[in-house]
Amino acid sequence: MGLGFGRKESGSNVASFLLGAALPTALLIFLASDRLGEGLSSVSRSWGSAGRTQLPSADGAAPNTRDPEVEFAGLAELLPKVAMEDKTVILTPVNEAWARPGSLLDLYLESFKNGEDIAHLVNHVLVVALDSLGFDRCKAVHPHCYLLQVPTAGNMSSSKRFMSKEYLELVWTKLTFQQRDADMIWFRNPFRRIALYADMSCSSDDFDPSRAPMDQPLNTGLYYMKSTNRTIEMVKYWRAARARFPRQHDQQVFVRIRSELVSKLQVKIEPLDTVYFAGFCEYHDDPERICTMHADCCIGLENKVHDLGDMVADWKRYTSLTPEERKKKMKGDGFKWTYPARCRKSSHWRKPSDEHKG
């Protein structure tokens, strides 16, 4: 969800780092200023069009060829305008379908206005459009938009059927720019709940504190990543692993290789608690602690918009109460989020406890 860059190293190096990663919702990336440099620029040549990508292989073998560097015209000038004082930028991607009026982009941006003390954060959101129609719509509703020139023959504008060839190309393209999906709403500042000692903090489909970190069902819909030599290698390794697992999207590949990332690259990965970083896979009826809600465990754009809209309405009703009324509400019949029926039905959701016994 966030991105930082150093004083001397400008947007071109930042763009180089972004070329190494992936997309689902809002990505939290922090680029440590003392780690930017030539190590980042090597990543910028690691991506090309479908079927022609040459990356460092997962077993360490060097590729035979490299694709031409992807250009990020104007990004170096744009990033300083969006960055916070600590050089953090919130990244989220859209295409035309997600950017239509009343769709996910509107829900996402409006959530900053409806959240608690986070209205200012919307000024640090960089929306990355994957097509020209999405870019035009973004410019109509938000001051910071960037058009990612995608070197693929595929149509990036329409909603994609889950796990179709076009869907897989879309999510791997998003990984290329290292961002997260916009199918998320914000309630309060999530940065206070991120473990800064980890190389990568990642959301979970469900969270059990008794599990070891790598036993959590990680979901790359949202993650926070520092830019270090280790995480740069991690991102390249992740991209390269796509060839080993054809017909799988970026999150599925990440889950398959996460133990390799830890053992081979010594990456520290920290799962995020669903009490604060909730999703339709697992959420808690605790509006006093929730930071974000992600429309995971959901297939279909209309289903995501509908069920997220219900959550927005629940939040507005709750926050319209006085502090005394909130306390009475929690002590009385309690607070309940509207059940995300459409999304859970679409994904054939099952209770997490049924899936992770033993």
Automatic annotation (TrEMBL):
<feature type="region of interest" description="Disordered">
    <location>
        <begin position="45"/>
        <end position="66"/>
    </location>
</feature>
<feature type="compositionally biased region" description="Polar residues">
    <location>
        <begin position="45"/>
        <end position="56"/>
    </location>
</feature>
<feature type="transmembrane region" description="Helical">
    <location>
        <begin position="12"/>
        <end position="32"/>
    </location>
</feature>
<keyword id="KW-0812">Transmembrane</keyword>
<keyword id="KW-1133">Transmembrane helix</keyword>
<protein>
    <recommendedName>
        <fullName>Nucleotide-diphospho-sugar transferase domain-containing protein</fullName>
    </recommendedName>
</protein>
<dbReference type="Pfam" id="PF03407">
    <property type="entry name" value="Nucleotid_trans"/>
</dbReference>
<feature type="domain" description="Nucleotide-diphospho-sugar transferase">
    <location>
        <begin position="120"/>
        <end position="308"/>
    </location>
</feature>
<keyword id="KW-0472">Membrane</keyword>
<dbReference type="InterPro" id="IPR005069">
    <property type="entry name" value="Nucl-diP-sugar_transferase"/>
</dbReference>
<dbReference type="InterPro" id="IPR044821">
    <property type="entry name" value="At1g28695/At4g15970-like"/>
</dbReference>
